[in-house]
Amino acid sequence: MNVLSVNKLSKQIGGKTLFSNLSFGMHQGDRLALLAANGSGKTTLLHIINNTLLPDLGEVTFRQQLKKAVLLQHIHVPEGATIKTWVQASTHPRNLARIALEQAQGNNNANPHAAAEKQYQSALENYQNCEAWRFESDAQNILSQLGIVNYDQPLHTLSGGQLKRIALGMVLLEEPDFLILDEPTNHLDIPMMEWLEHYLVANNLTVLLVTHDRYLIDRICTRIIEIDNGLSYAYAGNYSYYLQQRADRLEADAASTARAQNRYRTELEWVRKMPKARGTKSKARLEAFQELKQQLQPKTQTASLAFTTRPDRLGHKVAEFHHVGKAYNSVCILKDFNHAFGSADRVALLGTNGAGKSTFIKLLLNLEPPDSGKIIIGDTVRFGYFSQHCTFEDPTRTVLDTLRHYGEVLTLEHGHTRTAAQLLMAFNFLPVQHNTPVNKLSGGEQRRLHLLTVLIQNPNVLILDEPTNDLDISTIQALEDFLDHFPGCVIFASHDRFFINRVAQQVLAFDGTGTLKHLHGTYDTYEAWRSSTIRLTAHTEVKPENIQPPQPPVKKISYKTQLELSQLETQITALEIEKTQCEEQLQGPLAHEQLTACTNRYAQLVQQIEEKTQRWLQLQEH
After folding, report:
1. Same domain, yes or no: 325 and 291
2. What is the pLDDT of residue 595?
3. Which of 101-115, 161-175, 362-376, 435-449 has the lowest mean pLDDT?
4. What string of DSSP letters covers 372-419?
5. Count of domains observed in the chain
6. Are residues 519 and 450 in the same domain?
7. For residue 540, which phi and psi values (nearest 5 degrees)?
8. Is residue 295's pLDDT more than 60?
9. How confident is the model at residue 499 (pLDDT cuts 50, 70, 90)?
10. Lowest mean pLDDT among 197-211, 287-301, 498-512, 555-569
11. 474 and 37 in contact (C-beta within 8 Å)?
12. Residue 438 and residue 473 in one domain
């Protein structure tokens, strides 16, 4: 039985058809991703499904008594609240039972009588039956996994990213049957993303999500619906399988279009020769011609930056760090760091939130001085900096004038050029948008324009800070294509694992202690190193240097304990091998049933490895 039924939905905004006759259903345990370009109706569809916006046609039906929870991009924050008071305002039954018990206890203490005592006993029984004491510990556990630990912090002092993470935690805390998530991995670092993936799969949640995180879609999604030019296309499987199925569809569309073009030429010749006196058959044929003409109208444009620029020549020396040290807010970011960037490097800066990636970029751009050491920038270097935050000198300027402010033309190889207007067209800014004021653009459109203002200056070293934030998948793919052909050095900080795998050739990994690990490879290389480091840390107790604690008497391990330790080590190894095999399976095409079984088994393996590792550590301590 469907938990959600979407039946023949249609929606227009400003005369533009976002989607037409859209229908799909979701079963318990489905994890479905909606894919479309920015402005194509993904968030609008989520609002319609959430009943905060009405469709023009069609209906949405949920299974009765289904418990929903929704995370949208715009967070409504209670005024004057702290994290703790926001959590304690939850409508979760356990939290309501806690509130009822506190009120009943207060009434009974203030005015003890039989009715108050009875009310208190009833509230206490409900508190115990629903295990209401778990609510606060569950909240702390979920929020700590999302990097939120200071419960007493006022909400107005938090960044937008921190508020989004708290809102995500609150949604998960509700323990819903059905989750609607709009860009859930925005502002999460990689460990948080991995935790979220495992949480959604392990709890077998039914999830409808909009995201540009292709790695997340590939890891957890069982189905995908793509909205393209107002039409919808359904795909079974994860992102890898979607890419193959979509390629097959586009190939079939191309063949169909070629046949239609041949018919169009024949019909066009007939229309030109058609006599003025039109009978019924002629009118029918003319109507068929107009319909065929409409079919051949170009579909939705996709962003394209597949060209090679010709920036100023970049010498061998780009940037050299010599014994550089830097601390920020009492956190050691760099400690005696030495490194030289080459003219063709593709380097990813990876680490958790707050590890120092953005500060490293500021050091590189001379926006902040090092505490010690020196940084030497090559004489021929011309930086292009794509920052996390879009700021325009005059947001009332038009889109075209804003881009022209940074450059009239972009010089390409072989003497070719692209004008500012041509670049806007290549990046999905239609001519009618060229005279639109920048402050009238959406957040994603402003981000796209910001990227073009960087590229049109023809830099030979690109510095990108979270470049995929607020970009749709087609725009990210266009950026990846551009970087494939870019002749200079690229240094970027990102949590987008798919993008890192696609672009990076080297990794500088921040561990939060000032030590940077230099790795040759992509995100997969980094993940293998990080996983081995975590396992080593978990299995090895690190003692502070120069401290000799009293040595306890050596305990002889019993034969039974030795046997269990040996069995656990064998079991953990076998489980890790199976987990690796499962990960490899998830990378390939799988049928819907196989994908569901494989993702569920993967979640079980992760949990079993964690449980057996904890048991192994307990036995070692005793």
Report:
1. no
2. 56
3. 101-115
4. EEEEEE-TT--EEEE-SS---S-TTSBHHHHHHHH-SEEEBGGG-EEE
5. 3
6. yes
7. -125, 120
8. no
9. very high
10. 287-301
11. yes
12. yes
- What the block records as the tokens of 253 is 């569309």
Residue 280: CB atoms within 10 Å: 7
Which of 208-217, 270-279, 386-395 has the least mean pLDDT?
270-279
| pLDDT for res 113 | 83
Contact between residue 338 and residue 321 where contact means Cβ atoms under 8 Å apart: yes
Q: What is the CATH number of the domain that holds 434?
A: 3.40.50.300
Q: Specify whether 370 is located in the same domain as 278.
A: no
Given a cut of 80, is residue 527 above it in pLDDT?
A: yes
pLDDT of 186 above 70:
yes
Find the distance separating the first CA and the last CA of the chain, reported in whole Å: 51
User: What is the rounded distance in angstroms from the CA atom of residue 241 to the CA atom of residue 248?
Assistant: 11
Name the pairing type of β-strands 206-210 and 178-182: parallel
Q: What residues contact residue 220 under an 8 Å CB cut-off, 6+ apart?
A: 31, 197, 200, 201, 207, 238, 599
**Contact in structure between 228 and 216 (CB atoms under 8 Å):** no
* Strand 506-510 with 346-350, pairing: parallel
Q: Are residues 379 and 519 in the same domain?
A: yes
Residue with tokens 């926001």: 86
Cα gap 57→189, rounded to integer Å = 40
- CA pair distance 259, 549, nearest whole angstrom: 82
Residue 315: both structure tokens together = 């010498």
| CA distances from residue 597 to 33, 151, 522 in whole angstroms, order as listed | 18, 38, 29
Please, is 269 exposed, middle or buried when counting C-beta atoms within 10 Å of its C-beta (0-12, 13-18, 19+)?
exposed
Same domain flag for 283 and 324: no
Instruction: Give the distance between the most distant pair of CA atoms in the chain.
Output: 111
Displacement of CA 212 from its chain's centroid (Å): 5
Residue pair 125/96 in contact by the 8 Å Cβ criterion: no
**CA-CA-CA-CA torsion sign (443, 449, 454, 455):** positive
Q: How far apart are CA 201 and CA 156, in angstroms?
A: 33
Task: Give phi and psi for 34, each to the nearest 5.
Answer: -100, 125
Closest CA to 398 of 427, 454, 436: 436
Q: Closest by alpha carbon to 49, among 200, 209, 175?
A: 209
